[in-house]
TrEMBL record:
Protein name: FAD-dependent oxidoreductase
Keywords on record: FAD, Flavoprotein, Oxidoreductase
The protein's required cofactors: FAD
Entry-linked Pfam families: FAD_binding_2
Span of domain FAD-dependent oxidoreductase 2 FAD-binding: 15-434
Organism: Roseomonas populi
Gene3D superfamilies registered for this protein in UniProt: FAD/NAD(P)-binding domain (3.50.50.60), Succinate dehydrogenase/fumarate reductase flavoprotein, catalytic domain (3.90.700.10)
Amino acid sequence: MILPALEAYDVSIPVVVVGAGAAGLCAALAAKEAGAEVLVLERDPVPRGSTALSAGLVPAAGTRWQRAAGIEDSPDRFAADIMAKAGGEPDPAEVETVTRAAGPALEWLADAHGLDFSVITDFRYPGHSANRMHGLPSRSGEELVDRLREAAERAGIDILCDAQAVALHAAPDGRVTGLTLRRPDGTEDMLGCGALVLACNGYGGNKDLVRQHVPALSDALYFGHPGNQGDAILWGAALSAATRHLSGHQGHGSVAHPAGILITWATITEGGVQVNLEGRRFSDEGHGYSEQAAKVLEQPEGIAWTVFDARIAGIARQFEDFRQAEAAGAILAADSIPALAAATRLPEAALRETLGQVEHLKATGGTDAFGRSFAGVPPISPPYRAVRVTGALFHTQGGLAVDSGARVTRSDGRAFPNLFAAGGAACGVSGPHASGYLSGNGLLTAVALGRLAGGGAAALATPP
């Protein structure tokens, strides 16, 4: 809802950030560093959001961690990978902006705020031509959002929780002058602002918007944060802001079912496969986990089994989510194909035939009927591992159009006077299809655009 600007507000803050995930907290840290007073609004009792549900990995090119590991990479190479994965459909200017901003943003978080990043070197996600995924020690989104929150608290940034922004107040020229906040008890406050950063993610939790823009996943498990109700997009539409690629989204074809735990795609990239309840493969799993969500959901009961081995489990174990899945008993072990078939209740003959075909392709460097090349892919061998999974919608990738400074723009390209967007609130760099999602694109725009938005908001809100 957009309401008229008020002559006076209960209290006014130079920079207000809506959302305390990675995007919002990076924006707040950047605004504070630039000298602005900042307030972060979070609708939940504690900051978690979609960041906490992710693997916490941020792709960045040309970082000092890559150089230390002997990895050759550059923002241009990263940008080319993004455009290739999404068929050239993302905005090239935004792709250039985020790929150039991501590395410096991670080094800033490390140097100024003590976040202990390192680069993953033992496996590579589909579509990335270099090892460029950076994460904290636990490789979990929970650790990432916790460390960002702690950094914000050390910086003296106020985070107001249980405070839901339900309306924006705007002048006729589009300048946002304030917000209406609602508390759990129904009371409301009027908060004025000099500049506003929308970092409240996309619309994945809004069934009506999902049905409208991503009908293929309208009945899928939603593995994102329920607070992602599309507020930024709805406010933007009411202000006549431009939106782009609203059908774009990140799915995931590997959520343990019924445990509801994300299973890293390293189980596939390192040589694993997915089979349906008939014991048969049904797609090129190596293309990407986002588009795999719909393919899994097309299978009987919307279920697949990811089959891998102990070697791959050792690689996957660096992720906190995988360790939790093991602790929950979701990862099954078997010393032979008959034992694997018994544990999974899959037809033994079909499973044996499927795995035999895969290992033959690996041995000969062949390509299967789905187009997956097995050249150079390591074999899987006993002891086997398997996990029952389903497909899920993680978050949406379309959103408000932004310029190179993360300012929200109108359809004619003109920027709003003081409105910014980052993370899932902004249009990402994945294009309009699930297949365009390159691993890490969500946290890429959260961290890169978040820092840009916070610095820009501070410049507009703080007197020279």
